[in-house]
Amino acid sequence: MTSLSLNLSKEILAHASREMLPAGSPLPVSGLAKICSVSRTPIVTALRDLVDRGLAEHRQNKGYFLTRDGRDAEAQFSEGSRPSEDYLALTQLVQDLGDGGTTSAMDLVTALGITRARALTLLERGASEGWLNKSAGHNWIIQLGITSEADYMRFYRFRETIEPAALREPDYQADMAELDRLRAVQMRLLDGEYRTIAAVDLFEINRELHETIVAWSGNRFYLDALKRSNDLRRLIEYSKVLETRKIDTFAAEHIEILETIASGEIAKAEQLVLMHLQSARKTKT
User: Fold this and answer.
1) Lowest pLDDT segment from 79-83, 270-274, 279-283
2) CB-CB contact of 49 with 9 (8 Å)
3) Residue 75 bridge partners (DSSP)
4) Does the CA dihedral 71-76-77-82 come out positive or negative?
5) Cα–Cα distance, 48 to 54 (Å, whole number)
6) pLDDT in tens, 102-158
7) How far, CA to CA in Å, does 108 sit from each of 10, 79, 95, 180, 238?
8) C-alpha to C-alpha distance for 216 and 214, rounded to whole angstroms
9) How many H-runs (helices) and E-runs (strands) does the chain carry?
10) Three-state secondary-structure class, residue 143
11) What CATH number does domain 149-284 carry, 3.40.50.880, 1.20.120.530, 3.30.110.10, 1.25.10.10?
12) Domain 3-76 of CATH type 1.10.3720.10
């Protein structure tokens, strides 16, 4: 199996986990190709791998379907990307070492009590998420991006500039199917499902929502800037423990933003996005 297929299998299951898809949910090839930004062919290869692993099934003339709920499927994927204890321990370790510090597979073997193969998997994941960079030899350089509360506040002020601006683009148009899907996820959070979700998963759910809202602008420069800045905040975000009422509030605000966009009131949605980000900044800093 190629590294591309393996990564796509992970990405498909990560998507199924974030969306809290139940067993029996369809895995549409075209939709997944769009989400993963690849053609249909590698998606089919990845789905066949999931079938081989017993995590999906192919139904004649109907397509591919999950055989268990998304979170269970991702957890049982042998090379899955769910936040494990050793992954979370690594994120804490690199924050303790600080920006510019170094670590290695053998360091992780000693510090975390894991195998070298597992250590390399974790290091490669850190590199794919943008907070580790492979250097010459065996070391990996830590690149935290946001290293202080002051940086974190600057990051939010940056978002307060670009996200509302994206909604002012003249060709702004929401994909209603995507909007309905995002709203359904936020509704489930509002109903209390966040209680069973790790901070890593909550980060990914809300990251996807904001990036999708910006993507509807059709301006790839806004989207690229937001994606890059979100990568920089990943680790510090994991440490932000929110009160239950704040998670409820943010989910409700997300739903209001989506419903306002759906009604065509884009100028109002722009203001709601700005107020939401200002509230989040004040809550988290």
Assistant:
1) 79-83
2) yes
3) none
4) positive
5) 10
6) 999 999 999 998 888 888 878 887 887 788 999 888 899 998 878 788 888 999 999
7) 23, 18, 14, 42, 20
8) 5
9) 13, 5
10) coil
11) 1.20.120.530
12) no
Kindly state the tokens that stand for 55: 């995590």
pLDDT digits (tens, 9 = 90+) for 204-228: 788 889 999 999 999 999 999 998 8
Cα 84 from Cα 101, distance rounded (Å): 23
Encoding tokens for residue 100? Answer: 């510019």
CATH 1.10.10.10 residue ranges of the chain are: 3-76, 85-142
The CATH class of 85-142 is mainly alpha
For 271, the token pair is 């203001």
Is pLDDT larger for residue 50 or for residue 197?
50
| Length reported for the chain | 285
Residue that the structure tokens 């062919």 belong to = 41
